[in-house]
Design brief:
Blueprint: H1 2-13, H2 20-36, H3 41-56, H4 62-77, H5 81-95, H6 102-114, H7 117-128, H8 132-147, H9 153-161, H10 169-176, H11 179-189, E1 199-202, H12 208-211, E2 212-215, E3 220-223, E4 228-234, E5 248-253, E6 260-263, E7 267-269
Antiparallel strand pairs: 1-4, 1-7, 2-3, 4-5, 5-6
Helix pairs in contact: 1-2, 1-3, 4-5, 8-9, 8-11
Length: 272
């Protein structure tokens, strides 16, 4: 059985036309075959069908293939991973002798327009005008999204790991200029309501985790209600909530030895 099926895998995967979804599919079948030493009847038929399609597919027009390759290159340069995968899939489909659907043709035109000479010039202009202030806002938004997964995980990680990274204008606007990120950025950049050294107290609406402190030696809980605290640092941690008053402070309550981190909305001006 191995001598009958394995050569089919070898032949298909050695063919440069087997790319995109077709290659992924064949590789998954090969992985299963390697593990189980068998394929179902349906899987064998699918594998044979791919082999037959490659054997009978007409050669793809050289100019058309060149245009697709150029479009893939432009999409890669623009960091448009979705477009790269889509165009590669389209190319693989054409290499297999399959026709594109009307919807695929429509999307391909839009992708080509998104990576035209004009669009490329606009991206280059975007890159050259990417300011330090824009980078700061991008990094604030990135920290927020990494603290609140799963949105923008890859983009946020790259923004924080590579200080030379410039996202596409489209990606930047999606991550930085949505309503949640705007609130987080505003809270981060806003002047602190309470300066270092000022006295504050807990609001009655503060979460219960802040209202009590465990005294492990005595084995009892002691309330912080009414106790004063001194602001040690404003902006002690990145803002991770779009709620109003989410700037984080480090405060030290009177009589305690360790400061706690608390959002601005949970404290108020303290009075002796």
């Amino acid at each position: 059985m191995s001598r009958r099926i394995q050569p089919i895998f070898d032949s298909i995967l050695a063919d440069d036309r087997c790319i995109g979804g077709t290659r992924t599919f064949v590789e998954s079948l090969q992985e299963q075959y390697t593990r189980k030493k068998t394929l179902s009847q349906g899987q064998r038929r699918a594998l044979t069908r791919v082999e037959e399609q490659l054997a009978t597919a007409p050669a793809l027009d050289v100019d058309k293939q060149s245009r697709l390759d150029n479009l893939i290159s432009r999409a890669e340069k623009a960091q448009d991973a979705w477009a790269v995968n889509f165009i590669t899939s389209i190319k693989g489909q054409l290499l297999m002798g399959k026709e594109l659907s009307p919807r695929q043709k429509e999307i391909l035109v839009k992708v080509a327009d998104r990576h035209s000479d004009k669009a490329q010039e606009q991206r280059e202009s975007w890159d050259s005008n990417f300011t330090s202030e824009m980078r700061e806002m991008m990094e604030i938004a990135a920290r927020y999204y990494l603290a609140n997964p799963p949105y923008f995980k890859d983009l946020a990680t790259k923004a924080l790991e590579d200080d030379t990274f410039i996202p596409s204008e489209r990606a930047y606007k999606k991550m930085v200029e949505n309503k949640f990120a705007k609130k987080v950025i505003a809270a981060t950049l806003a002047d602190p309501r309470y300066s270092v050294g000022s006295l504050v107290a807990l609001r009655a609406t503060a979460p219960s985790s802040f209202l009590y402190v465990t005294r492990s030696i005595l084995g009892e809980n002691k309330t912080r209600t009414g106790k004063l605290a001194t602001v040690i640092k404003a902006g002690a941690k990145p803002v991770t909530s779009p709620a109003r008053g989410s700037k984080v402070y480090s405060v030290l309550f009177f009589g305690e030895t360790s400061p706690v981190e608390i959002e601005e909305r949970w404290i108020k001006k303290g009075k002796r």
